[in-house]
Amino acid sequence: MSERTTAEPSADRPGDTGAGEPAHRSIVPLASAGLVLGMLLSVLDQTVVAIALPDIAADIGGADSFSWVVTAYVLASTATGTLYGRLSDRYGRRPLFVIAVLLFVVASLLCGMAQTMPQLIAARVLQGIGAGALFVIPTVTLSELYPKHLRGKVQGLTGAVFAIASVGGPLAGGAITDTAGWRWIFYINVPLGIISVLLCAFALRLPRAAAGEKVDLGGSALLIGGVVSLLLITQWGGRDHDWTSGLILGLIAGCLALFALFVWWEGRAENPLLPMRLFTNPSLRLVLPATAILGMLLYGSVVYMPTFLQTAYDMSATEAGLALNPYFIPFLVVSAVAGGKAGASGRFKPYLLTGAGVLAVAFLVLGMLDLDSPYLVVAGAMVILGVGFGLLMQNLVVVSQNAAAPPDLAATTAANLSIRGLGMAIGVALFGSLLSREIGDGPVTPESTAAAIPEVFVWGVPLALLLTLLIGLLPRTGAAQQGTDQDSDDRKPAGSTPEPGTA
Known about the structure:
Blueprint: H1 28-47, H2 53-60, H3 68-91, H4 93-113, H5 117-145, H6 151-179, H7 184-187, H8 189-203, H9 217-236, H10 246-266, H11 284-313, H12 317-323, H13 325-345, H14 349-367, H15 375-403, H16 409-439, H17 446-457, H18 460-472, H19 476-491
Helix pairs in contact: 1-5, 1-6, 1-8, 3-4, 3-5, 3-9, 3-16, 4-5, 4-8, 5-16, 6-12, 6-13, 6-15, 9-10, 9-16, 11-12, 11-15, 11-16, 11-17, 11-18, 13-15, 14-15, 14-17, 14-18, 16-17
């Protein structure tokens, strides 16, 4: 594969000739580096802050609302992700990505300069709006920079980036907080974001989509409203407000109404944000809910595992970050290897089924921990977690991409990543609510917190089993034949249209 290609683009989507080879004039290694750096920043800022929250609250106050420092960011990035996918179809991947990174950089500066908790939360909302594009657009664009038969390997590498940022975030956050202070977890984004912008501005060249397509602003507003309502329900319900309170019941009613209106609107929109035809595909009907559950399990473990290590073993922030390496390293290695092997063979389903089963075992082991459990047992459970997530993470993205028709690639990818982000936010809120219930009305001490967290992890077992069921229902023919289909697609003459995969 050459670094520069000059074939004419297909009308199906930017960057694809229809023969399986991308049509663009990008300098692929440099463009890929810029895109991946943006992805790294996006995910890193979901986790790097969590371990610094005690220091932030001690410095600027607002301990009663510091959870919103995490929630506001995830809420804003999740709510805008699908919209960015469609906007990039209309206005091009590169300009949208560059604008989003610049917004992210400015917001990072504002976060580091915040003097009060409300200021920090407001800056985090702005940062999340920028971050909504920083994972969606690169995931779509990387699939356009490389030929179809390399998608599994490329997306496996993006899964490795996700692993580095998700599990390495607490380590980086702890080290920066202990040495330079919490404000530098935001300031460090500035030079990295500028490098990402320069690389993509110089090296990324993709054809622009047809100028006649309109952006579905009505659908975007309804979806954002529904997502915000859902996240507020999971954040407030059972913690700040009773589930039967007027506020929560009102939010539930509003959430259901907004999503119902969204479905109605999308069925009638000229250029829908989320085409309802996606859900007629037998694979996507299963992959999308499976992706939401995966997000719940991932962030339910990523956010609360450092807390368990700090409370159960009296570790510092840096020590807890280092102690997460048994989670981080298998996730990184397995994601890269499994993505390449699954993409080469075209058989994704065995990897996905294995990963879901492994996660069920991991959460079962985590649920059996107690204050007397040696760290080696915890490390073993984290290794199992890392393997399970590495098998699942980006392979689910590739399955959804292969199942989509070429014109729906951006919408499908954005939907997949947004649903995963929504699952992540729900997982954090759900596990937090369960933790509060397990601790009860007694004093919150390190001992009580450490004793309660394993009881929360037990709830990951039924979620993992449900994930296994959904993957098991994926069509076998698509998983078995995808490799053959891809190879034949790559050999088709320019102008022919490949059949979308089903699993």
